[in-house]
Amino acid sequence: MRIVRPLALTLIAVFPDASAADMDAATDRAKSKDFNAIGEVLCAQDVGQSLGTCSAAVARVGGCAAVVVTFTNGFARTLQFSDGEFLRGNATMSGAGTDTEWRLSHGLYHVRVDDQRFEIPAALVIGD
């Protein structure tokens, strides 16, 4: 006689990555205009345009930040950062937000999203 034992089932709880949850929370706070800091950054909306001044506001949660940059014409773009790295810009009518380049140099993020350029102090993104 052969004894058959049921297989032991192991249930594994799957939790979202903490930084993904933090990014969602930071973005939600930004959409609700619940900001940690407000300031100004350098920006250009179009190719070849000189850098000008835009208003910027940041919502931070954990190691994540959502920076909302508003151009003088009222157009706004949200830039997402996690653990000090630029991730992406939100999709807009002017682009998907995934055609990007960035670097951090001397405490300043130099970010390009689609045709737009931004210079954002690291202190605004990361905080004090």
Offer a concise description of the structure.
With 128 residues, the chain is mainly beta. The chain has helices spanning 18-31, 122-126, and strands at residues 37-44, 52-61, 64-70, 76-82, 85-89, 100-105, 108-113, 116-121.
Task: Walk me through the structure.
By secondary structure, this protein is mainly beta. It is built from two helices and eight strands. The chain has an eight-stranded antiparallel β-sheet with strand order 5-4-3-2-1-8-7-6. The longest helix has 14 residues, at 18-31. The protein is globular and about 35 Å long. The relative contact order is 0.18.
Which secondary structure elements does this structure contain, and how are they paired or packed?
Elements: H1 18-31, E1 37-44, E2 52-61, E3 64-70, E4 76-82, E5 85-89, E6 100-105, E7 108-113, E8 116-121, H2 122-126
Antiparallel strand pairs: 1-2, 1-8, 2-3, 3-4, 4-5, 6-7, 7-8
Main sheet summary: 8 strands, antiparallel
Low-confidence stretches: 1-16
* Shape call: globular
Number of strands: 8
Q: Taking all residues together, what is the mean pLDDT?
A: 84
Q: Helix amount, in percent?
A: 10-25%
* Helix-strand string: HEEEEEEEEH
Structural class: mainly beta
Number of helices in the DSSP assignment: 2
The value of Rg in angstroms is 20 Å
In percent, how much strand structure appears in the residues?
Answer: 35-45%
Q: Largest sheet, order of strands side by side?
A: 5-4-3-2-1-8-7-6
- Give the N-terminus to C-terminus distance in angstroms: 71 Å
Properties at a glance:
globular; 128 residues; disordered N terminus; mainly beta
